[in-house]
Write a structure and sequence with these properties.
By secondary structure, this protein is mainly β. It contains no helices and 11 strands.
Length: 112
């Protein structure tokens, strides 16, 4: 059974940083293409970042390039999203995603 559990969200001031984690189980994590997506109230899901090639490659949506870094620890079956220089428009519920599976999400709120 695929299981994804996100953590690390919270309230942070603009310009601050957070690191999200996603503990994964039930599939071959080391080979998996893993994504972070986010959802804001009244909007659909927005893709944020992807890592593939065992974690050697990554890509980002334009609005977070240079500020967010996706990574994975294949020994710990954990996906990360390091978020720096956060902006109010980054406020959302963040989910890790494998194939069609998502976790319960973790809330990130960026506000002064």
């Amino acid at each position: 059974e695929v299981r994804l559990v996100e953590s690390g969200g919270g309230l942070v001031q603009p310009g601050g940083s957070l690191r999200l984690s996603c503990a994964a189980s039930g599939f071959r994590f080391s080979a998996a293409v893993m994504n972070w997506v986010r959802q804001t109230p009244g909007k659909g899901f927005e893709w944020v970042a992807v890592t593939y090639n065992g974690g050697a490659s990554a890509d980002y949506t334009h609005s977070v390039k240079g500020r967010f870094t996706i990574s994975k620890d294949n020994n710990k079956n954990t996906l990360y999203l390091q978020m720096n220089n956060l902006k109010p428009e980054d406020t959302a519920v963040y989910y890790c995603q494998y194939d069609d599976y998502r976790g319960q999400g973790t809330q990130v709120t960026v506000s002064a």
